[in-house]
Amino acid sequence: MLPQRVTIVEVGPRDGLQNESTTLSKDVRVELIRRLMDCGLTHIEAGSFVHPQRVPQMAGTDAVLAELPLDGDIHFPVLVPNQAGLEKALAAGAKEIAIFAAASETFSQKNINCSIAESMRRFMPVAEQAHRHGVKVRGYISCVMGCPYEGIIEVNAVVAVARRLIDLGCYEISLGDTIGAGSPLMTQRMIESLANDLEINRLAVHFHDTYGQALTNIYAALQLGVSVIDSSVAGLGGCPYAHGVSGKGASGNVASEDVVHLLNGLGIAHGVNLDKLVDTGRYICAQLDRPVMSRVNLAMS
Ligand code: HMG
Ligand code: MG
């Protein structure tokens, strides 16, 4: 049954910018987030505390957080890979972090330089310390429906990682189709398998649109009752460590404008102003000097 209301987690200021050739100034990143807030978005991923040489586009996330109303109602999660990242996030006043694991061993090594098991050992004290500070912890799983290095990923691997992240206290698991390899049937089977063990309201979907299947996959997830959708304004996004053996990697996230239009068509509430979102997509693409990738944004030109 379709949910009556969906929460959109806007990942543009993090996933959207982390793979761009242009590194934006702190002021532009803050302005992007302000505009997204003005659209009515309540969950806006603000950046990441990873190694600045690995992802220079996210350096200075502390300065971005310093300009945001962190004590208000809006959630500004930041990605944290380890203890060093957590300390920086806490020092910057973050109220919510996202730890990020993978369902693929090779991707885990390429992305965060450790095995899946080792990542869980690292995340355990990170999650514990975050909770002690009253900081909420979200969990990501990458490569849930395919890996750029290993190809097919078994659903059992996703279920096992999801269970471990829930056991670490993650309030929600975002299922990342990092390279956009999923289909509606794969989405359905994965969510049904996860729902055998976890509550559906603990699951979020995070689709990249490499093969143009993201909206269809979202529809499949909505039909099973998933009510949290990650998306990125203008369809920006991609993981710098998802360029596998084929050279093809993560292209953009599903565009927030397209998700809002889909939800409008389904009569599902979301609280986001589409006209303002379209303007925000154009703003950030102008800053990046790149075309908008959202079909809805282009259609509303
Ligand atoms: P490492 O080299 O294994 O770390 O990197 P280390 O613990 O061995 O330390 C090496 C050096 O890094 C030390 O400095 C540490 O202090 C420093 P040195 O002593 O040599 O001067 N260091 C750090 N500096 C800043 N911040 C930190 C940090 N940690 C260690 N947090 C690490 C491990 C995870 C840090 C590295 O591999 C890394 O930064 N990776 C980047 C991963 C990333 O950001 N990927 C993109 C996001 S994930 C994604 O996009 C997928 C998602 O969207 C879902 C989907 O679509 O699938 C979420
Ligand atoms: Mg992603």
Secondary-structure map:
Blueprint lengths: L6 E4 L1 H5 L9 H13 L4 E2 L2 E2 L12 H6 L11 E2 L3 H9 L4 E7 L2 H8 L3 H17 L3 E7 L12 H13 L4 E6 L6 H12 L7 E5 L6 H10 L4 E4 L24 H11 L7 H15 L6 H5 L2
Parallel strand pairs: 1-2, 1-9, 3-4, 4-5, 5-6, 6-7, 7-8, 8-9
Helix pairs in contact: 2-11, 7-8, 8-9, 10-11
The structure holds 3-hydroxy-3-methylglutaryl-coenzyme A and magnesium ion.
The site of 3-hydroxy-3-methylglutaryl-coenzyme A has 25 residues, from α4, α5 and β6.
Describe, in plain words, how this protein is organized in 3D.
The chain has helices at residues 12-16, 26-38, 61-66, 83-91, 105-112, 116-132, 155-167, 184-195, 214-223, 256-266, 274-288, 295-299, and strands at 7-10, 43-44, 47-48, 78-79, 96-102, 136-142, 172-177, 203-207, 228-231. Strand 3, helix 3 and strand 4 form a beta-alpha-beta unit. 41% of the residues lie in helices and 13% in strands. A nine-stranded parallel beta sheet has the order 2-1-9-8-7-6-5-4-3. It has one domain (7-300): Aldolase class I (TIM Barrel). By secondary structure, the chain is α/β, with parallel strands linked by helices. The model has no long low-confidence stretch (mean pLDDT 96). The chain is built from twelve helices and nine strands. It binds 3-hydroxy-3-methylglutaryl-coenzyme A and magnesium ion (MG). Magnesium ion (MG) binds next to loops. 3-hydroxy-3-methylglutaryl-coenzyme A binds next to helix 4, helix 5 and strand 6.
